[in-house]
User: Fold this.
Amino acid sequence: MNYDNILSQTHNGITTITINRPKKLNALNIETIEELHKAFKSANEDKNTKVIIVTGSGEKAFVAGADISEFADFDVNEGQELAAEGQELLFNFVENLSSPVIAAVNGFALGGGLELAMAAHFRVASDNTKMGLPEVSLGVIPGYGGTQRLPQLVGKGRAMEMIMTAGMIDASQALNYGLVNHVTTQEELLPLCEKIAGKIMRNSSVAIGSAIKAINANFKDGVNGFDVEVEEFGNCFGTNDFKEGTSAFLEKRKANFPGE
Ligand code: COA
Assistant:
């Protein structure tokens, strides 16, 4: 599929989705959010894709936020719609995909950029990364899940401070906060993400999808994560991946998972 604002390439089981508006520091306008939705959806449905990596083009930014020029004159209803549609199309959508999503954060990850990175299943950053939720400096608050996911990832006090000060933290602080799992150089960022993806791909993609569902259940209101775990655990017993994984172990060979 051809896109105007993003690139999507699949190679060796990995689909890399690159937000490609470097002149605007990859700011997320509505068109880009819609294209990202399509690209994530088709990668998740693609049997050849085992892991999705999302990154930004250029050396300066992952994503410098939602596109401020698009919402500067919005009213209350338009503001609510913008947040609701964005959450549904992209941020909640990515978080709930059954394919693992790694954010390769390669520079500024601000506002909607940090929110996108936080919607991914985990994050790896380059050492020039700067992360923050600067929305209150514009007279607004994070609207793409930032007030919910940042405290989940770094704790309430740190999230309060980051959001209230509108400040940025650097890569080492993000590592210290547990907001990113690894920090590396710009050059090594994608190779490191691909190496981690390689380790993920050796395992059952069906079981990984179940694990994502069970882990996410812990953060959903009114859902008992332990019950979801029990259900997903049971579901695994009905899969060919489970038959292959257990047979391979007992036959002392490497598993070759069919992914079903
Ligand atoms: N929305 C729209 N355009 C954006 C943008 C955003 N969130 N972030 C950057 N851009 C645009 C700039 O307007 C500029 O466009 P121009 O060349 O047409 O004027 C271009 O990207 C380059 O940005 P610039 O500000 O010149 O780069 P810089 O290196 O001086 O500063 C930042 C980098 C990230 C500190 C600065 O761009 C910034 O503060 N961006 C907004 C961050 C933000 O508040 N995000 C949350 C939005 S809710």
Remarks:
- The longest strand covers residues 6-11.
- The longest helix spans residues 76-95.
- Residues 205-250 form one domain.
